[in-house]
Amino acid sequence: MPGPDEVNIARVVALRLGCGKHVPAWTVQRNCASGMQALDCAARNIASGRAHLILAGGVEAMSHAPVLLNNDMVTWLGEWSTARNFGARLAALSKLRAGHFKPIIGLLRGLTDPVVGLSMGQTAENLAHRFNISRERMDAFALESHHRLAQAQDDKLLGEIETLYDTKGNAYEHDDGLRRDGDMAKMAKLKPVFDREFGNVTAGNSAQITDGAALLVLASAEAVEKYKLPVLGRIIDIQWAGLEPAQMGLGPAHSIVPIMQRHNFTIPDIDYWEINEAFAAQVLACLEAWKEDDYCRTELGLEGAFGEVDLARLNVDGGGVSIGHPVGASGARIVLHLLNVLKRTNTRRGIASLCIGGGQGGAMLVESGRETGP
Asked: Is 19 a catalytic residue?
């Protein structure tokens, strides 16, 4: 959600980092997957030979989302600006109504699909109903996300997270959305947000509104050799998929399967998975969809069920529910974290994936930088 001072934020970042005025920069936009799209663009530019070394990733400051004037106020301001005399201004003032001052909350509008008229939370409710995912199951998944993040922080497994400092010298070493004292009883007390009468999606089992940024350096083999760069991993394959916007949370189910088919992989061939936790219901729905013969045949073009992912290998250090989902950054964050998980576990292969507002999914297959043979 670019602000008026950061329309091409990539250029702002590049200049502030000291990359130099001669280094070009450009910004991409694919909603929740913008950070992953940036990595895709970088990888393709390197593969085509147009570049050898690229800094790519994503950023989002959801706390700074704009508050907008409504259309009636915009129209009135137009009339006011063209009023050339006292009488015309007096006539314009007579048309000003209290409703003109009703603001539009940019964040809420941005998280609502304009085609189907549903907020992202309402699409999660759709999936919970479709796959019969209970409130208790959503809450348990969300609570586990917090537990896993707490353990990762305690074990110092999040080395890619940088300490931030404010203008007063205060240091922030960890994201502040972690709820260490959460339990099922506290989760159960939270009221549904998106369907107050019948819903089950709450603030507790949804990703948090948060700020964040994630950047990775992508390099060609020549650049790795020239600058003696350490290799954390490799991008092997990328897939984008489209689906019904009202079911947008199923995007990972649609984008991951084609990658698996292209490489003749089965679920055990993937060591670790990162599926961004926009909502607990949304991740659980993807897992349920893969287990259903009918869904996999009619929606994914498979002969039967795709299979069942081991939860012990999915989002092992928590996810968006606990660490937050700064929309533009998450796609890059989950790829970076997945590569670090592969490194510390001495494993080879992982897939990172997101659902995308508007009814899309994105997935990226990566391999660790360790020597594994062909």
From this structure: no
Q: How would DSSP label each residue in 268-327?
A: GG-SEEEE--SBHHHHHHHHHHHH-HHHHHHTT--SS------GGGBSBTB-HHHH---H
**Which residue in the block uniquely carries the two structure tokens 């940088």?**
162
Asked if residues 224 and 231 have their Cβ atoms less than 8 Å apart, the reply is yes
Q: What predicted TM-score, i.e. pTM, was given to this entire model?
A: 0.94
Q: Is 355 a catalytic residue?
A: yes
Q: How far apart are the first and last CA of the chain?
A: 41
Per residue in 300-356, pLDDT tens? 999 999 999 999 999 999 999 999 999 999 999 999 999 999 999 999 999 999 999
**For the segment 230-279, what is each residue's pLDDT rounded down to a tens digit?**
999 999 999 999 999 999 999 999 999 999 999 999 999 999 999 999 99
Region of 318 (left: φ > 0; alpha: ψ -120 to 50; beta: rest) is left
Domains of the chain: 67-107 (no CATH), 120-367 (3.40.47.10)
How high is the pLDDT of residue 370?
A: 60
- Strands 349-356 and 164-165: what pairing? unpaired
Rounded Cα distance, 166 and 145, in Å:
28
Distance of alpha carbon 201 from alpha carbon 208, whole angstroms = 13
Q: Nearest 5°: phi and psi at 319? A: -160, -155
Catalytic residue among 146, 296, 337, 355: 355
Task: Select which of 146, 254, 325, 337 is catalytic.
Answer: 325
Cα–Cα distance for residue pair 26/22, rounded to 1 Å: 13
State the pLDDT at residue 372: 42
By DSSP bridging, strand 233-242 and strand 360-368 are antiparallel
Over residues 356-371, the pLDDT tens digits come to 999 999 999 999 986 5
Residue 286 designated active-site: no
Task: Given the residues 32, 146, 286, 296, select the one marked as catalytic.
Answer: 32
